[in-house]
Amino acid sequence: MLTKKHNFGAGPCILPDSVLTRASEAVKHWDRADLSILEISHRSTEFELVVRETEFLVRELLDVPETYSILFLQGGASMQFAMVPMNFLGTGQKAAYLEAGFFGEKAIKEARISGDVTVVATSKDTHYRSIPREYNIPADAAYFHTTSNNTIEGTEMFNFPKSPVPVVCDMSSDIFSRVINISDFDLIYAGAQKNMGPAGMTLVIVKNSFLDGIKNPVHAILDYRVYRANGSMYNTPPVFAIYTAMLNLQWLKSKGGVKFIHMANLAKAQLLYDEIDNNPLFYGLAEKTDRSLMNVTFRMYDKEKEEEFLSYAAGRGMVGIKGYRTIGGFRASLYNALPLESVQALVDCMKTYIFKTKQNLVQV
Ligand SMILES: Cc1ncc(COP(=O)(O)O)c(C=O)c1O
């Protein structure tokens, strides 16, 4: 029997039990190669097939047009903060960024090393509780960069602006959680360690014509075109991370794909937000219209009680609900593999904690 606590971790995070079982079996002995998955050559036919199947699953699950390449890189989403401007922000050009969270802010900082950046709008002055709506994207920018889900602050972008320039999106924390129209984007990147698989692999989906327009000289290891030309095997790829991502995407497909998981994600988020809104001890941090389905941020009116609630919840098997260090309070991440039962267990905890508090008051 595998596990388990109720894992609300923001990433690395919960993976389905069946995926963990198959991945751990392959560490011991992977039938296809008659070796451990950790020992096989990345140049073997067996592993080549894993990479191609993982690519195929990404294409199928997200309905990626043939005019886009699917690449597997390393370095996390943070390396993309640097790679995007290194490849696409040429000398004398500027890029447009929407600043709606801590990770968007980091991306801007990296882009400024390569060239000029115009921040089209920011919600920093309100602690990133919402996603700015009114802004213009300059038509002479090399690209427009945004973040679809702000993992730390718990906001999600449900509508993307019409952009006169190529759109680049960091989808690290909501990729595969809902249907997206890939054609609205020119480059999407995501660290794998939320809805795709274990840490160590980064997914990039990029329009070929956008890549063909690169004029900057870029070191091979940081050049998207090199990954495309080498089928993501310019150097040794993260073999185990790609293999486990393949298993996880097979799991997602077997569940009915992204449309189905989105319905399940809506139900989980609704259950938790309803409790936050109805429980007199808690309140939500994000603007209601921008509330993330993946990362739910909330606090207690009585901040002194937050540590106590954390221990109370930990005693009932909840893991990973402490809010990000700069924000405090709580953050419950409801990624694809988290079952509704875990959300119900957290909601029950919030309800029984009130009861406990009332009892204490009576005893006093
Ligand atoms: C939206 C977003 N962007 C970027 C990052 C940084 O990712 P990595 O740690 O893979 O570099 C994270 C990490 O949680 C994230 O949630």
Q: What would you note in describing this structure?
A:
This protein has 364 residues and is α/β, with parallel strands linked by helices. It folds into two domains: 6-12 and 257-363, Aspartate Aminotransferase, domain 1, CATH 3.90.1150.10; 17-254, Type I PLP-dependent aspartate aminotransferase-like (Major domain) (Aspartate Aminotransferase, domain 2), CATH 3.40.640. It is 38% helix and 16% strand. It has ten helices and 14 strands. A hairpin with a 4-residue loop joins β6 and β7 (155-156). The longest helix has 24 residues, at 340-363. It is globular, with a radius of gyration of 21 Å. The mean pLDDT is 96. The site of pyridoxal-5'-phosphate (PLP) has 11 residues, from α3. Residues 11, 76-78, 103, 147, 151, 170, 172-173, 191 line the site of pyridoxal-5'-phosphate (PLP).
Q: Averaging pLDDT over every residue, what do you get? A: 96
The main pleated sheet reads as: 7 strands, mixed
Structural class given helices, strands, pairing? alpha/beta
User: Based on the structure, what is the oligomeric state of the protein chains?
Assistant: single chain
According to CATH, the homologous superfamily of the largest domain is: Type I PLP-dependent aspartate aminotransferase-like (Major domain)
CATH architecture of the largest domain: 3-Layer(aba) Sandwich
- Please trace the helix and strand order, writing H or E for each element: EHHEHEHEEEEEEEHHHHEEHEEH
Radius of gyration: 21 Å
* Secondary structure tally: strands: 14
Helical segment count:
10
Q: Under the CATH scheme, which class of the largest domain?
A: Alpha Beta
- How helix-rich are the residues, as a percent range? 25-40%
How many independent structural domains?
2
Low-confidence region ranges: none
What is the third-level CATH name, the topology of the largest domain?
A: Aspartate Aminotransferase, domain 2
- Termini, distance in Å? 44 Å
